[in-house]
């Protein structure tokens, strides 16, 4: 007996329930290369994955996309976990994606570059946004694994260089599933919590490892958390040759966690040494300056003495000349030669007969005294 007919929608609905309840197809993991990638404005992502012989359409819901730590790209080899379902409107089956993982180092490099390009275009790496690392911090925060060697190296270097700095450790998972979310969440918490507003510098990182081990620091949530953090961030991931997305988003990159510790705090021993050397140099310069100024003063005094001696000598010569002139014109010497001087009673010298007036009293000065007389007659003789 034939079954009664069903509608197309009912058939697709039935097939969907069958696929959803299948133990394999309800939780399938498949590997392939991404193609036909399309980011929809709704936040959903549509693409296909394929191998040499086949391909399957994939639907990546926005609710899962937001947990993706990197940028997808055509040609990227990935491992996808999800379930098979029917796209009822089109009557085609689709792989509904829960998680996407990049497969292999080559593909990790591609995913790295895709995300780097995206964030760079958004301006997350612009130098204009970089905050300076404080030269003399009081408190350093460290976001890393509590069991890693990197933490011990950082603490050892900081305390050996500067024992005046406080250290706060924020333990996080640094590799594996969920590590990026843990790191990003912790950085966001530190930056938004007033209890940690006095932290001067934040070191974020871990020691060396494989590309997969370091991958958490290449995920988008970590980069955005570092970029948004109000505290200056030093990224210190792996070794010198290792570059991570967090390095580009951070305010400074350190080649290693040890280098980050050296970058974060000044060396007090070196500062004291430089201060002592500067003090000695200043003292030596001051002593030299005093000696030079003393010598200059001696020279100035000698020059002044020589100048004064020349002035005194010049005026002494003039005084001697004046003395001789005065002596030669001394009236007493004239009187001693037999000359006399006629003066009226006011002391005015009478140099002409016409100046003598009858009845006036005059004084005649000679070498041995004065003769006072009254003129009783005047007579001019030539």
Provide a short characterization of the protein structure.
The protein has helices spanning 8-21, 62-65, 105-122, 149-161, 179-192, 220-228, 245-249, 257-264, 268-328, 331-336; strands spanning 28-39, 45-50, 55-60, 77-87, 92-102, 139-144, 166-171, 201-206, 233-237, 252-253, 341-344, 361-366, 369-374. It has 382 residues and is of the alpha/beta class.
Task: Identify the notable features of this structure and list them briefly.
382 residues; five-stranded parallel sheet; OB fold (Dihydrolipoamide Acetyltransferase, E2P); 13 strands; rod-shaped; Rossmann fold; single chain; five-stranded mixed β-barrel; alpha/beta
Describe the model.
The chain has 382 residues and is an alpha/beta fold. It has four domains: 8-122, Nucleic acid-binding proteins (OB fold (Dihydrolipoamide Acetyltransferase, E2P), Beta Barrel), CATH 2.40.50; 132-266, Hypothetical protein af1403, domain 2 (Rossmann fold, 3-Layer(aba) Sandwich), CATH 3.40.50.10550; 270-329; 332-374, no CATH class. Helix content is 40%, strand content 23%. It has helices at 8-21, 62-65, 105-122, 149-161, 179-192, 220-228, 245-249, 257-264, 268-328, 331-336, and strands spanning 28-39, 45-50, 55-60, 77-87, 92-102, 139-144, 166-171, 201-206, 233-237, 252-253, 341-344, 361-366, 369-374. Strands 1-2-3-5-4 form a five-stranded mixed beta barrel. A five-stranded parallel β-sheet has the order 7-6-8-9-10, with helices on both faces. Strands 11-12-13 form a three-stranded antiparallel β-sheet, with no helix packed on it. The protein starts with 7 loop residues before the first helix and ends in an 8-residue tail after the last strand.
